[in-house]
Amino acid sequence: xxxxxxxxxxxxxGELQGDPGLSxxxxxxxxxxxxxxxxxxxxxxxxxxxxxxxxxxxIVSPALREQAAARGAFIVAADPYLYFARLTQxxxxxxxxxxxxxxxxxxxxxxxxxxxxxxxxxxLCVVERGARIGAGxxxxxRVTVSEDxxxxxxxxxxxxxxxxxDGFGLAPHEGAWVxxxxxxxxxxxxxVEIGANTCIDRGALEDTVLEDGVKLDNLIQIGHxxxxxxxxxMAGCVGVAGSAVIGAHCTxxxxxxxxxxxxxxxxVHISAASVVTRSIxxxxxxxxMFPIDDNxxxxxxxxxLKQLHGLRERLKALEKxxxxxxxx
Amino acid sequence: xxxxxxxxxxxxxGELQGDPGLSxxxxxxxxxxxxxxxxxxxxxxxxxxxxxxxxxxxIVSPALREQAAARGAFIVAADPYLYFARLTQxxxxxxxxxxxxxxxxxxxxxxxxxxxxxxxxxxLCVVERGARIGAGxxxxxRVTVSEDxxxxxxxxxxxxxxxxxDGFGLAPHEGAWVxxxxxxxxxxxxxVEIGANTCIDRGALEDTVLEDGVKLDNLIQIGHxxxxxxxxxMAGCVGVAGSAVIGAHCTxxxxxxxxxxxxxxxxVHISAASVVTRSIxxxxxxxxMFPIDDNxxxxxxxxxLKQLHGLRERLKALEKxxxxxxxx
Amino acid sequence: xxxxxxxxxxxxxGELQGDPGLSxxxxxxxxxxxxxxxxxxxxxxxxxxxxxxxxxxxIVSPALREQAAARGAFIVAADPYLYFARLTQxxxxxxxxxxxxxxxxxxxxxxxxxxxxxxxxxxLCVVERGARIGAGxxxxxRVTVSEDxxxxxxxxxxxxxxxxxDGFGLAPHEGAWVxxxxxxxxxxxxxVEIGANTCIDRGALEDTVLEDGVKLDNLIQIGHxxxxxxxxxMAGCVGVAGSAVIGAHCTxxxxxxxxxxxxxxxxVHISAASVVTRSIxxxxxxxxMFPIDDNxxxxxxxxxLKQLHGLRERLKALEKxxxxxxxx
Lengths: 328, 328, 328
What we know:
nine-stranded parallel beta sheet; alpha/beta; Udp-n-acetylmuramoylalanyl-d-glutamate--2,6- Diaminopimelate Ligase, Chain: A, domain 1
């Protein structure tokens, strides 16, 4: 399995300086590359790695043309990281092993589900009654798409994904909980990717919605009635509680929690492990995370934190005393 | 698919003011409702939405009778949210499509498992040897109930649930870990609901226990030997470490962590994303969560937090100096 | 099902004081044990429970020989907890019900996968093309091992585990995300245990690696390119972001988050729910966690925390004033 440099630039563009006949056997990080390896330099801070790399060829930005030339073959691309992304897609396409099965015989698909003839359904998936799977969409193994849920075109759902389980709807009554049946479904746009074991609950009355281009990592929980805007991306282990409305082009870091019924504007970026407790109306970068420290230092600071309001009062009192002293 | 208002109050009670022949086509939020929609008002703060709503009928509390009358048909119920919950159940029952399959043929059920004749087992479930599934209980698709685990009556287990995986039991030995086989099982009471991809580990020696009426959301981890009291509810992404004992009528917010071997009294409410590091013996509401802020402000405060104990010492010293000055 | 004390010490060693013919029907905690129960005392702090226990026999350390002798039969072992771990293994072995099925007929195994003849594959598992499963390894039900991923010998993968889903690789382009195909795989060493619904992503270019003896609890997310050193253990709900390199003999508490591209030295211990935001080069115990409090106290302290940097400035100013006053 290999690709010649000439074939790569023919497919993806970019300016090749070097032998188009050179055969590339692997895509590989700069520091691990040998003469049959193709690497990329996404950031000038890796210039030292570039100089030291034994890669057969590197992808660089126009600004680094000179440094790249000093060591051998290179491809100039306006955005090397994007070029590399497309190269991984070309690589996968070229090396794909034929796989004739469109719907794995072990999948359980309800006769009243509608699966586009170009979609692919992996082993041991479940597609329930009334569900719809769009063109070119791929369900890897062991995915559940529940009743009446709709998945758009060119989506990718990884193993263990659960679309359309009941939302967490409960009314308290005499010390127990009465179930609120979840009558909505889930509607997912085009070009959405959903990571392994991630769960997206059906809506209570209306649908839970993921707009086009949303990307969710693994083990994420999306509650009922949530709406996620276009091209928003979330890292692993995020939890979004019910009825939150998240804008387009947002990012949410791993392990963050968004409480229910909140609104996040377009272009809001939440740091990992932060808890969003109020709506955020302005784009920007938001964080709330206890800084890690060695345990002994943490213990002291955490204990003091429980007296923080009192410390502020003492500081205030002291300021007042000092001012009075000065004025007396 | 529709229900007349008359049929609704006949089934659920409540006082109808309006035409019992009016046909309701959907249950829908106030602001989205049209003349064929039935909505409810759970809280007086939505009075403006009530006035503006085009809903064919609304469910209100006795206190709001007057405001509801000003706009059209309404049902008076002592607890509109509870009434609405029961209405969703009625709605689901009335609109259920016939589904003859009690045990899906793709499910793998051990001959030595005992499944009540009224239970339903979904596609691609696994019920292992010695497991017992109670009357009226429903396993949606792709649920695993491991050896000897017992599920009570009228429970609902969502896709991907794992009951009775081994707890995390390890004894350190010469730098490696020796497995402690988990010889207990899981015992789940009646009327328990367990969300998608949630895991409940089997006990080490005795059983992990969920009492009647417990409600767990998606992607929750319950460690071995844990005991959860009646009607306690937990939101998504919660983790409860081994041997914790949680009381009845508690709530745990999304993403919270309860450390191992702790006890929580009945009626304890833990906020989302809080970490319970000590036993809590008094009912009440407990929180520990770093407040979110714009990232620049957070960075300043977080850096200062790492010096907090030192700041307290400086404040103390200053107080002493100031007192001495005053007394001198 | 029972074991005589004599058979136990014959198999596991240790010094028995008492009747070797005594029949043990269960392994059980000290406080719950009856005359047919065998318990252990791992820590002197449980001495009171020892005295009160009705257990037929207890496992104790040499130091507690006298106290144990005061109440009945006992086994002396250098490390009672380790002895107990091995006893659970013996117990499980002795009471194992015969189970003839090596590869469950419902499992979907690609003809180009290689499964060792001594491995066991549970119901509804998926083992994809090019995957390899080592000797003595057990996949419980509903496990996915994706293309080209390698699992070593004597591993145990619990239900719902996903090995080798795509890592979260995305290049931004004109407001949308371009997928970076993940061309690496996952390589897992020997004696690794992986908890229910845990996910381990395949590498982007090279492999994600778990070394020998790693133990992961349930619902853990391991990102692409991560490397975890020998005998490191992680509790439930942990998230490790892409390209993190974690040393050997580390422990990570439940719900902790490790950000991407960080390095943790050997012997680093991270407390539950802490967020690792920087590399840690020295072994030790590290924590970052907001202390839980009753909600009213938390609210006051959290509000003050948002002014903490300002408080420090005010304290500084006051110190300066007071010093000037003293010196004037």
